[in-house]
Write a structure and sequence with these properties.
By secondary structure, the protein is mainly alpha-helical. It has one domain. It has three helices and no strands.
Amino acid sequence: MNVFKGVTKNRLFMGIVGFTVVLQVIIVMFLGKFTSTVRLSWQLWLVSIAIAFIRSNPSSNL
């Protein structure tokens, strides 16, 4: 059973996911003092995206 099947067909859900991603980038990159975060280098952004992709893959056993 694949719970992710068809999830990209819901435009509202994808809009919320996209907005969340953009908001997280803004928070990390520009609101560090307010949220106590540190800017990430482009290498760390790539690592973060790779980890998210691997962990969100339904066939992953991690």
